[in-house]
Structure prediction request, 701 residues.
Amino acid sequence: MASNTLNESKQLATWYFTFAFILFGAQLLFGLVAATQFVMPGFLFEILDFSVARTLHINALVVWMVFAMFGSVYWLLPDETGINTIGIKMGKLLYWIFVAAIAVVVLVYIFVQVGPADETTIWFIMEGREYIEAPRWADFGIVVVALGFVANLFLTGMKGKQTGIVTVLMADMIAFAGLYLAGMFFTDNISIDQYWWWWVIHLWVEATWEVFVGAIAAYGLITMIGAHRKVVEMWLWIEVAMLFGSGILGMGHHYFWIGTPEYWWEIGALFSALEPIPLVAMFVHVLYDWGKTQGAEEEAGNSASVINNKPAFTWFVLNAFGNFLGAGIWGFFHTLPQVNLYTHGTQFTSAHGHLAFFGAYATILIGMMYIAVQGKNNIKVLKNTKSSIWAVSMIAGGVMGMTVALTIAGYVQVLVSRAQMGATWAGYFDGQAGMWFAQGMDWRLVMGLVTFLGFLLLAKDLLTTGKNPVHER
Amino acid sequence: MANKSVWSDNRFWQRTATWVTGFAAVLLIWLTFDTSAQISMGTDEDLKQGVTKRVPGPTVINYKIEYLMDAKRGHEIPVIGGKNAEGRSAFQEKEKFFGRDDWTEEEAGALLHLGKLGSQAKNCMNCHTLLGNGAYYAPDLTKAWLDPAWGPEGSLQAMTGKNTKEEAMAEFLQHPSQYPTHERMMPDLGITADEAKGLVAFLKHMSSIDTNGFPRNFGKIQGAVHGK
Prediction:
């Protein structure tokens, strides 16, 4: 698949991956600040408060993933369509606009932090809505950049070979971009506010992003182990049906307690309980295709591995399992209203958030970065190195450790603050003061540090493995 | 091949995906119309006429608000202006808010607007949860207005030296780090006296929203752990 000179679309993809990776580091650093504050509340008090650190933690998360997603599409488009990506010059311009806008937003978050209670704050400092805090001016910037990206994808997809993967991505990315508009207005009515806020957050991470992952996994299976396109694309369509079929109405699980009518209990419970099914299917799919391709090779007397990119494939398999575990299992734990009445808004949610974002998205996007390293350096078979193995082990172990620690802290919070004490101010702090809660927070910080060390190794590996002589060229 | 099964046909699955997605999207849009109507903000007229809205109008700040178990629904609901024979909102009993119980629709609306803007401009949601959504570094604010700690016997009201709940809350919001309750403190966010008033109105209004019984048992359990 690798050509001698890097295709322009792929070059742009590497730009996207690079900036995504820098933001990934920022996400972890600000996460460490926030985690430290749980353990030592005086840390950076009234300098860089928890609210600021957390805003940066979750915004860096969302934005690095969006960058890596755009990068993934620019990477695979020439392979899938068989033509050069159309509008690549505009793509490059938009990339720089996007990067500049993010730099300004981040500097304002850090140095201005909050503003007076008027519209100028909403327009120029921050909107104060979790995950989509970016001020309104930046919203418009994001819409322009997203439209440019979608235009390039559509023009290329319609002119070149429109494979199943490209078709799914076209439909998915236009929904992904369009949904952002639902988060761009102000209302005094907090129930209406949160109703539409979930259209962005939920329909991104539990619908359009999941379908995106399905498409990327399909591309990865074809390029890394030579899986049969027709089989892979059939799976992809089944996954789209199951993901959208459960995920769209699964949004009801966010509408249990925000002022919305009781019928969302039943709708949310039913459809969100179905959400893990496609995630199981995706895991089975990846392992099945791997086994099938390897088995066919062995039958032909070929014992070599069919995988041409070991680290990327490791991350893809981790994705298939992590998506199921983090989004599926940890999500299902607290998705029924009978449980959610007590778990809603506790560290339980945070535990699920950490494992789901990591398992479902971080993993596969890191995998795409390895595919880019392979392509950029013309490597036929990219092998694991010591640091690639340590990186994946420490990051996955660290995130899993954080998840377990937060789950235990969450149990304490659910039982003490909620069930026992009735969710008041006093009840909240009784839960937080609990010994097991405090231990959970200590372990979360330790595991966060493990994750960050793994990240440093990952950075080292991504930067150096391309020149490593162990790979087959 | 003549005997090719439809189950292994990509076109079939593509159509299935399209239909399933379309059906789910249409259902969601239809439900959105219904929900939007049910959660639109009520008016002063509704309150005067005794019309229960899931999200009452801003002048709800003129009324006493409670959070009581509803036998029929099996969970707590906001009860506005005292309860009637069925245990639901009677919209009768008023309660002074910053010395007045005759805030007009315009005045109360402006106060709520200021408070909602303030809640976003000060990034409340990245420490607290509102309607259970946000961050988990500080207490949930959904029913904060009804928290016994802010009430006449409450430790937080006593701490600020104020005589009413709203004045105590407003004082705390303006100078949070002067009133440390725990090692973990709320930072000074430059909240002005006006903004604080708006924020308290926003909190009082939020406590009147029908959240289907979330959070459960709010403010009902006193001293259960320490046996006061």
User: Anything to note?
Assistant: DSSP finds 16 helices and no strands in chain A.
